[in-house]
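Archive entry. Fields below.
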Amino acid sequence: MHSFIELSKIFEEKFNTRHFPLHTATLYNPAQYILQLGGKRIRPVSVLMGNELFDEIHEDAYHAAIGIELFHNFSLIHDDIMDKAPVRRGMATVHAKYGEPTALLAGDVMLVMAYEYLNKMKIGHLQKVLQLFNNTAKAVCEGQQLDMDFENIETVTLEQYVHMITLKTSVLLAASLQVGAILGGTGERNQHHIYEFGKDLGIAFQLQDDYLDAFGDPEKFGKQVGGDILANKKTFLMIRALEVADAKAQKELQHLMMSNPTDKVARVLDIFRQCNVDSWAKQLKEKYMATAMYHLEEVAVTEKRKLPLKELAYFLIERDK
Amino acid sequence: MHSFIELSKIFEEKFNTRHFPLHTATLYNPAQYILQLGGKRIRPVSVLMGNELFDEIHEDAYHAAIGIELFHNFSLIHDDIMDKAPVRRGMATVHAKYGEPTALLAGDVMLVMAYEYLNKMKIGHLQKVLQLFNNTAKAVCEGQQLDMDFENIETVTLEQYVHMITLKTSVLLAASLQVGAILGGTGERNQHHIYEFGKDLGIAFQLQDDYLDAFGDPEKFGKQVGGDILANKKTFLMIRALEVADAKAQKELQHLMMSNPTDKVARVLDIFRQCNVDSWAKQLKEKYMATAMYHLEEVAVTEKRKLPLKELAYFLIERDK
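PREDICTED_STRUCTURE:
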């Protein structure tokens, strides 16, 4: 058994190489660029952890892990185009550096290469893993579309937001764990619980993400703090604030979301604090965390084997970047 | 054995249905939209023909054919975004109708669904077909990138253009035929020759495409005639004209490519005609056609089985739309 940190190092050693052909460089260099920006590699490491929860790590787990990390980076490149985001991990986004057409295409080729890595798996695992992967990839696209749709509707409920986030973020973490579990040779019941663990953990993860976007330390966070506020994103915090703020604060929030004063971020944060959305977000995060932990408990292996996943869970929801 | 037309009808009946879930409609309706615009369905029918060259059509051939047609439409959606093309098959392009972010995402989800259809194949064919498909998909992306790169370099040689077109257009036709051949159960040698047949035919096809863009009948063509000229594309015709025109005509061509007079298309076409690029293009097309036919001859099956592919070849290079 390995800890989360150990598996991260093992994965990084395998992953820290050029994954793309040298030619056509104008296409593949932009694809390689985003991989070099780093990242927490949570999803691929989750594949390894899902595998090791049940058995020794299978060689196929590394292929699947790389495939899933490439998929994740494909989605980042395309999301950044759609969101017109200039910065990712403290550096220029792919489209900001190389132009939108090339970034679009670099994302496409990265998605194809994700499938190329999955196709390195032994035939016994291939069809089942591909099915899960395809369903997940569709869900991620649906989630991104809903996220964009939400920009154009006035009120988004907490339930709608959780549904969108589940698709856009959680299912990929859940599927990463389940792919590992499949490769670890376990049955449907354990696969179900590890998937659900990942799904609830993913929502808690997003709560932390939304929290950090508003209340994070700018030096640690890597992204623009208040970016969601400037983009008028209906995050967990904003949805809650719009629900519980008094009439005056609600009106101000709505006004701020339709304008761009220079002190917009500070004023929205003031209202967030008045409404105690920060402590509310922490409580909601604990709730999802508890459900996640219930599903982990239900996985029929010894307690000891679950320790690295618990470690991962606490890392994800207590991180400051 | 079926003719090209018969197989087109058989495929169209299977394909003419909604391929996407009803929800999330804002994502899947734009994806369905482009499929309803029609098209010649050359690639999926080529899968069926490649199969039937060797054996009865396998059920998997329909899954593969649909997968390849979805892939082709994914590439059209994204190419149209990159090229800022307003019209496709006489109708608004996906991004013109639904906006770029949604079109980008609809393309992504269509690529995922292409893999979903491929994954319906029986396990015995899956890994080999996926490998060919992935290599082809990467090549198509590389070809599109080279096409964009060519916009920013002054001189593109005929050799460079043929290389780009091979990647962007030919290999998908070649791979469609080879996928069919794999499903038809033939060996490597026949697979090689049917692939090469498709590759040369694909180049002849592009020659016809470039020809029609300049000299086609606007009512039949469906796209804007002269679109390549207005976009300053270095097509077969333009590359040849820049090579053989006299100094005065060359200077005028270069001037026209850097400006946008209202009579640009007419003036470029005049120079094309002066340089006889129309008859040159026809001859070059015949040359590629002859090589394609050589490879078809080399396929070790009876002459009679090859007739539908010959029919396809002549259809493709003599079409007027």
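CURATOR_NOTE: Chain A has one domain: 4-318.
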